[in-house]
């Protein structure tokens, strides 16, 4: 095969973050004019690799060749200049401006070098949209478009910059079936024009519809690059999950008493379909699934952030209809959210203040806050949870990630919550702190708390949980008990739904 | 990990501030004393008890409004309607007293009017998610119009002598309005520190999403601070009417800007989550002292405005240099 067939060659790319080797000597070669799929489980390195291509991250080592010439991509601008356009899941359109303006944002055609040439702007934008075989009025504002149409506008924007390589990060995650069909047509159109597409998706069946070749990553390594026609779905799943996963350590935990404290019956929301789930006293229940599978949404329904459209939630046998988190908290439910900095803590406030934020009423006498009682209680939990801080008056902003997470946990223990929902409890915290958080969670379960842990790290759930529910596409795809934890099967359910 | 977070503290927390932090924390006081010194140098009359008592009286109307504004700014809001609400409440109290309602009942009615307007501010901005800037700007315009409409723009005269006790009366040599201001500042400081309502305001202003997920009723707190601001503006308006012994529909024009400036000078951030009423108290005093100095040196009023603006910006820039934090 002629070397010049490749529009992009990335060779020996490595990238590490503090504590994590995200990419190890990864190779990826993309042929001009093909649709090249990129796939891997959570943490396989897909996003990191694409961010290096987009100039968001700098690689530690390795070489990149684009259109036969070696290139150094140092920032997003140099990437765009080469003709690489990346369309992220969170679209980057300006809501109130017209489609045409968005397509040519910052590169408007001008009259006499000063005045915006509206006629030309609208004509050229409409031509690009029409070329894609889509009916959108480019004079209308973006805010009136569906998610699928916005994807198309993003593509048009990439075409307006004369991009030669377009990376699409999970374009289908938010699309309806019909919209997906449109997207497939548009991608075929791009291919016909000789534009290369890198397509990232978790939905395997899609890859076989749109893709020519696929690169599989696992644990930051390149596993294979192969023609999709030489592969069936089962073989692809095998490649994604591999056979070399190590077994997690399963320590014996307290026997589950069997008293049901949370039950969801046929709960549906806009993101979830007919979820059935039960949590027993003293049990740690895991929710595993890929990004967007509905893990977080299940926790949000239990916590009263989202309301079920159908079905019902029962807490300790009683039907619950929470209007807001405050109601759930009254029932003893607590949430340790995914993003502790934006959702869990008020960063400017001190350790003590964040710790008692939910239980201020417990420290008042005839309406007056008792500071000595609060300080003593917080100091007690700083000791119990081994929170490392110079003082309880230090702003939480100054604490490490692990200690910040412990402050969030302290907040709920001081509130005397008995059902704890953890969303990605160890995201972005170092290994030592991780183990400490695990031992706190296990300790809670041994004290007959009910614990639900949603995570994208299977290792973590295997180590912690008594039972794991696997989420796929907003549904519970499978359930595994501790005596039957088979990593490969769990991964298969998460990746392919069963 | 942060190098400074190695020691686990048990028991009561004792923490010492560095010199930089000390200056940062008390820099407003430093500024205050600097201006007091300048004023004392310019005129021996400034450093007399009588002048300070006068200052207290002159500052009390803005000072009381600024207490409510502090609450609003702690939750990252803004209330542009305080001047207009004060005017309307001054009109209400004057009209009702001259209509024979009696002084206590008229005052209660005027405070209730302020509470209602404040509630509308809070309700409109939270329920319809309209920025507080716009909701209270609309209130500022409409309330002023209403104040002018009720008497067709004419002031209400004929207020009885006992009513002037609030704004112009003295206990010993101390002005009553000044005492009210100090008393309310103490109450507000205690409420901010020793009630769950007060602590929740800092959480709501610092990170509304985290506050919501921690079970704090964010919208309820937001509406509450506008009600507090409305009531305090109304009180300021009543005191102003009492002082001038007239219900004046154009009273307290532009007062919102003085109140906001005082709160920000007092160390609060418009981004929310920080600030306190003692800082605001000092901020109001500082602005009054500066005006006082201008008068002592006989500066024409247009120049006064120019220099006041400059001094506010300079004070905040200085603050930023000393503490390295955003104003």
From TrEMBL, chain A:
<keyword id="KW-1003">Cell membrane</keyword>
<dbReference type="InterPro" id="IPR003593">
    <property type="entry name" value="AAA+_ATPase"/>
</dbReference>
<keyword id="KW-0677">Repeat</keyword>
<dbReference type="InterPro" id="IPR017871">
    <property type="entry name" value="ABC_transporter-like_CS"/>
</dbReference>
<feature type="domain" description="ABC transporter">
    <location>
        <begin position="256"/>
        <end position="498"/>
    </location>
</feature>
<dbReference type="InterPro" id="IPR050107">
    <property type="entry name" value="ABC_carbohydrate_import_ATPase"/>
</dbReference>
<dbReference type="GO" id="GO:0005524">
    <property type="term" value="F:ATP binding"/>
</dbReference>
<keyword id="KW-0472">Membrane</keyword>
<keyword id="KW-1278">Translocase</keyword>
<keyword id="KW-0813">Transport</keyword>
<feature type="domain" description="ABC transporter">
    <location>
        <begin position="8"/>
        <end position="244"/>
    </location>
</feature>
<dbReference type="InterPro" id="IPR003439">
    <property type="entry name" value="ABC_transporter-like_ATP-bd"/>
</dbReference>
<dbReference type="GO" id="GO:0016887">
    <property type="term" value="F:ATP hydrolysis activity"/>
</dbReference>
<dbReference type="Pfam" id="PF00005">
    <property type="entry name" value="ABC_tran"/>
</dbReference>
<dbReference type="GO" id="GO:0005886">
    <property type="term" value="C:plasma membrane"/>
</dbReference>
<keyword id="KW-0547">Nucleotide-binding</keyword>
<protein>
    <submittedName>
        <fullName>Ribose transport system ATP-binding protein</fullName>
    </submittedName>
</protein>
<keyword id="KW-0067">ATP-binding</keyword>
<dbReference type="InterPro" id="IPR027417">
    <property type="entry name" value="P-loop_NTPase"/>
</dbReference>
UniProtKB/TrEMBL annotation, chain B:
<feature type="transmembrane region" description="Helical">
    <location>
        <begin position="59"/>
        <end position="80"/>
    </location>
</feature>
<keyword id="KW-1003">Cell membrane</keyword>
<dbReference type="GO" id="GO:0022857">
    <property type="term" value="F:transmembrane transporter activity"/>
</dbReference>
<dbReference type="InterPro" id="IPR001851">
    <property type="entry name" value="ABC_transp_permease"/>
</dbReference>
<keyword id="KW-0812">Transmembrane</keyword>
<feature type="transmembrane region" description="Helical">
    <location>
        <begin position="26"/>
        <end position="47"/>
    </location>
</feature>
<feature type="transmembrane region" description="Helical">
    <location>
        <begin position="163"/>
        <end position="192"/>
    </location>
</feature>
<feature type="transmembrane region" description="Helical">
    <location>
        <begin position="132"/>
        <end position="151"/>
    </location>
</feature>
<feature type="transmembrane region" description="Helical">
    <location>
        <begin position="302"/>
        <end position="322"/>
    </location>
</feature>
<keyword id="KW-1133">Transmembrane helix</keyword>
<keyword id="KW-0997">Cell inner membrane</keyword>
<dbReference type="GO" id="GO:0005886">
    <property type="term" value="C:plasma membrane"/>
</dbReference>
<feature type="transmembrane region" description="Helical">
    <location>
        <begin position="223"/>
        <end position="245"/>
    </location>
</feature>
<keyword id="KW-0813">Transport</keyword>
<dbReference type="Pfam" id="PF02653">
    <property type="entry name" value="BPD_transp_2"/>
</dbReference>
<feature type="transmembrane region" description="Helical">
    <location>
        <begin position="257"/>
        <end position="290"/>
    </location>
</feature>
<feature type="transmembrane region" description="Helical">
    <location>
        <begin position="92"/>
        <end position="120"/>
    </location>
</feature>
<protein>
    <submittedName>
        <fullName>Ribose transport system permease protein</fullName>
    </submittedName>
</protein>
<keyword id="KW-0472">Membrane</keyword>
